[in-house]
């Protein structure tokens, strides 16, 4: 369930139940949820956003032109 | 080459150029990142991405205009990686992950291996720790994290890109995240955090 919520795959009801009720009474889930959320956020900020080299873009465009 | 099972389209030269420039090229940076995370080498990544774009152009009539171009391109890149790149590389023979997954998905194992990593430790990981931890994962596990957490694909899109059932996407992702947490808790330990 935690994974479905994390990845935006849970239904509205599942989300409501988990975030508003379950997390209040289950410490392991509470801890794990915040940990997983933080890791997901870190992955997004630290491992994304690299730019493709501009010569790659040029090479592709010129090869397509030649086809 | 197997791509989406859409009926074959007919495009004029101008339409092809339009699709290529407006629907395919905007994903070049994500594609390069994906290639880099798979091969862990800049030159190999460039070759892989270039190869993928050339294939995409050649098979452009298998692509239905206005549908999910990013998923379509990612699928071609993933297939090229498996078919062309992996053969050339010296990577040891592939383990049967289905078997590994079944084993690791039993709750018993799960409880033992989930490390008690803390959010506070993560806050100090400002360098390359997370990137290194991701790169250290086996490529099949790395791939699901890239697709889900870096690129934001939904489970059904990932299932199509990887040609595996959604249930396998979910279990592989679960396992991948546990492995990533293990790596991160190793770093946390090195940084002086107690993880237990």
TrEMBL record, chain B:
Keyword annotations: Sigma factor, Transcription, Transcription regulation
Coiled coil regions in record: none
InterPro entries named in the record: RNA_pol_sigma-70-like, RNA_pol_sigma-70_dom, RNA_pol_sigma70_r2, RNA_pol_sigma70_r4_t2, RNA_pol_sigma_r2, RNA_pol_sigma_r3/r4-like, WH-like_DNA-bd_sf
RNA polymerase sigma factor 70 region 4 type domain boundaries: 129-178
Any single Pfam family the record assigns to this protein: Sigma70_r2
GO terms of biological process kind: DNA-templated transcription initiation
GO molecular function: DNA binding; sigma factor activity
Ranges where the RNA polymerase sigma-70 region domain occurs: 27-90
SUPFAM superfamilies (UniProt xref): Sigma2 domain of RNA polymerase sigma factors (SSF88946), Sigma3 and sigma4 domains of RNA polymerase sigma factors (SSF88659)
Top-rank lineage group of the source organism: Bacteria
PANTHER family from the UniProt entry: ECF RNA POLYMERASE SIGMA FACTOR SIGR (PTHR43133:SF59), RNA POLYMERASE ECF-TYPE SIGMA FACTO (PTHR43133)
NCBIfam families: sigma70-ECF
Recorded family membership: Belongs to the sigma-70 factor family. ECF subfamily.
Listed name of the protein: RNA polymerase sigma-70 factor, ECF subfamily
Source organism: Chryseolinea serpens
């Amino acid at each position: 369930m935690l994974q479905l919520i994390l990845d935006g795959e849970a239904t509205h009801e599942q989300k409501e139940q988990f975030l508003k009720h379950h997390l209040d009474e289950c410490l392991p889930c509470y801890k794990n949820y915040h940990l997983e959320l933080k890791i997901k956020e870190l992955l997004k900020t630290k491992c994304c956003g690299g730019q493709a080299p501009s010569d790659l873009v040029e090479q592709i465009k010129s090869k397509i032109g030649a086809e | 080459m197997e791509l989406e099972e859409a009926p074959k389209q007919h495009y004029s030269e101008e339409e092809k150029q339009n699709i290529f420039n407006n629907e395919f090229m905007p994903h070049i940076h994500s594609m390069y990142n994906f290639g880099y995370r798979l091969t862990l080498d800049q030159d190999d990544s460039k070759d892989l991405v270039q190869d993928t774009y050339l294939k995409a152009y050649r098979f452009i009539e298998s692509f239905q205009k206005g549908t999910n171009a990013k998923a379509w391109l990612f699928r071609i890149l993933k297939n090229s990686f498996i078919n062309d790149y992996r053969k050339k590389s010296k990577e040891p023979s592939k383990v049967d992950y289905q078997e590994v997954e079944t084993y690791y998905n039993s709750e018993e194992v799960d409880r033992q291996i989930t490390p008690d990593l803390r959010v506070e430790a993560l806050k100090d990981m400002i360098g390359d720790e997370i990137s290194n931890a991701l790169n250290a994962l086996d490529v099949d596990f790395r791939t699901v994290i890239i697709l889900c957490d870096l690129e934001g694909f939904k489970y059904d899109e990932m299932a199509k890109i990887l040609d595996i059932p959604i249930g396998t996407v979910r279990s592989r992702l679960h396992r991948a995240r546990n492995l990533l947490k293990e790596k991160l808790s190793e770093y946390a330990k090195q940084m002086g955090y107690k993880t237990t």
